[in-house]
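Loading example: each entry is read as two labelled lines plus one structure line.
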Amino acid sequence: MNFISGTYTDQYQLTMAQVYFHNDGEYQDAVFDYFFRKSPFDGGYTIFAGLENLIDILEDLSFSKQDIDYLRTQGFDQKFLQYLKDFKFTGKVYSVNEGDIVFPLRPVVRIEGNIIEAQIIETLLLNILNFQSLIATKASRIRLVAPHQSLIDFGMRRAQGLGSYHASRAAIIGGFDASSHVMAGRDFGIPVSGTMAHSFIQSYNDELTAFRAFAKSRPDDCVLLVDTYNTLKSGVPNAIKVAKEMEEEGYKLNGVRLDSGDLAYLAKRTREILDQEGLEYVKIAASNQLDEFVIKSLLEQGAPIDVMGIGTSLVTGNPDGALDGVYKLAFTKGKARIKLSENKAKVTLPGKKQVFRLRDDQQHLIGADVVTLDDENLVDEMFHPFETDKSLKFPDCQQEPLLKMVMKNGKRLNKVKSLREIQKYSKERLAELPLEFKRFDNPHIYKIGLSKKLTDLRNRLISEEKRKQ
Amino acid sequence: MNFISGTYTDQYQLTMAQVYFHNDGEYQDAVFDYFFRKSPFDGGYTIFAGLENLIDILEDLSFSKQDIDYLRTQGFDQKFLQYLKDFKFTGKVYSVNEGDIVFPLRPVVRIEGNIIEAQIIETLLLNILNFQSLIATKASRIRLVAPHQSLIDFGMRRAQGLGSYHASRAAIIGGFDASSHVMAGRDFGIPVSGTMAHSFIQSYNDELTAFRAFAKSRPDDCVLLVDTYNTLKSGVPNAIKVAKEMEEEGYKLNGVRLDSGDLAYLAKRTREILDQEGLEYVKIAASNQLDEFVIKSLLEQGAPIDVMGIGTSLVTGNPDGALDGVYKLAFTKGKARIKLSENKAKVTLPGKKQVFRLRDDQQHLIGADVVTLDDENLVDEMFHPFETDKSLKFPDCQQEPLLKMVMKNGKRLNKVKSLREIQKYSKERLAELPLEFKRFDNPHIYKIGLSKKLTDLRNRLISEEKRKQ
């Protein structure tokens, strides 16, 4: 995408890069892990999203003449600027498949490259993956409570500025059917949807004339907004008139939309009235401050809503607003690296690593991923990440490696996946996860385990680092 | 900005536009108001931001060949596509100055144009203004509790995708000094700031060597991150060594940064140790999950922090995540328009309007803005917006008109304002607001009043519309 350049980063990436550059950083290999520490929304899983965009961006990443001229004014030196002028990402990316379910503390993406490039891309990687994973996860929660409804992203107007663009993409990965966002539709192949606003009705002197004008212009995709004056007294009766006029012309009214008031009550009454008129085929769409909790309640009340338009809470990932993903150095200069912390949960996992998903002999998830060193083959025991005297044997489990190489020498290895493919994959992967991990309150905790070798390496490095203090 | 095109909108704007187009909408004047219903963060004011970007975008708005080709696949008809091919925004924009303090329910921006263009731009206007106003307001709250500290936006990695770009701009308007976001620095003239991450320290075999390498590369802007191993036992002593070595070379260490642990305690101890070594000039920077409440507490505890790096909570506008701004039709086809609602607070203000800010004869804000019809001169009485039997006389008040024309025939009328000018203006306007409106808990409510003429018009239209139901 033409918006992002090498300057889509934090300043400190460039100040560090300059130091590395003057110390032969181009020849210094580094391995960084992307992972997060907590699933959003106090939930039991996260949907990983943003990978295909990240690959596209990394393939094209460069510093324009305008960038270099700007950086010159910021005190970077001439040799380093010359280096940036020719900069390209030349590294490898290993990643979990986009759309997969992922869990805290274990690597989701592994970047291998020279330390300069690996550092410069940190911020954009976090920016793209944290946000899309947040929104895909939110979307999947809404899909969980509304498995049979059409779900449409209406959030652009309240989205966080240009964040709207990738929010609409991520919503599809999490299970949404369509978006109102035309540009996202254009660029990501998302089905776009949208009919009319209150202003349209108001701009006519009466509701019926407005409905008729719209139906005439878009007879094959006509959803009438029925709450401008009074839903049951005016909007629905006028919609019925128009629906019958459309029938005479050989068309069918697609639906009516409720955007205010008590949606459960209004949807039921509207359904009754439509059905009495033989308009069983007219769908009911609803919008207005919907989120997974409101939708769950509406459906539990039996509200006959076919189409849901969800805005703010979806595209801003409310109430969390951010996934806490981080990017940590795991290996450089031939040595595994660790970052200590007083908080045990913040001590990083050193070395070049792989992650395996465990399944029993019936192919069911056992609810644990195990992290190993990259050169390990199958393992049959895993250790608790913080209480390393606790371990668990799993001699008969199937082990699926989750990190696969998706870029090499800065180039994409596989063909671009369509959003539809990613959505389908995500649905299959989430379906494997037992319900107890998906409930909203106190979900079951998916386990992380470390291999013996990784545990030993980590313990050794912790001792070494403590000696430095 | 080259990213945004006419497709940066909701699909329904285009479906409505097509209907308008086929009904001579090009010749149908319309007036829309942008306003919001609730200040974010349960606060007593909102900082209005995003206007300069909006003007730039509106001046350049068009549909590319790629856009038209895409829309052709979406069922729009050929004549309408031909119209979009030549589309330009040709309307007028009246607006409050960017950076001003604004309050719920009264117009902040007024758009006048033909109904097609006024409708197509709705979504992008809301998208740009809602978000930047949210973030500028958040930034101003942080500035209020830390009037003397350097405040730096560190939020890019946790920002909502590309939303990071305008978040960094809005933070400056709200009173921040700098950002880590290089691209925002390049495009908006924001001072950028940033030195090193933990990975930099970890990539060396010991902390002192890392510090020395960095100091050598950037001796005139060197801030050392001191918490990688142990802040007081390792980081600060090593920083002191490097500071003294720098002094011998004629340089001064700029600062040390704390990024974990108890920031109040560590800042105090670090200050003591640095001062004992004669390094009073070395600043203390702190980061890690800061927001206005944490910062207030740190400073109340006497933490000697000079520089604050604020990330997630700033750039995502946590916990609100969105400003609830809306865009409502007020006038078309020669008639003022109103939107009714069962909720009195949601009934719109009809007609082409102006807003006046009231000051007493000492030039002090009296805590009220009054909304009038656009052709009214000064008024001396205002009516409660929902309880129209309540009124207030203000015979001796100064009245400042807030909505000024900033675009005409789709062209900018004034020269571009620099971010620094907008920030300065915002600071002055916020300084006028008494403290009771700025406190975080239950702030005093800034009043809205309607002129007699507007009240009468509104009452008349409410009666007319009710007759339609």
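Chain B has two domains: 11-135+321-468, 145-315.
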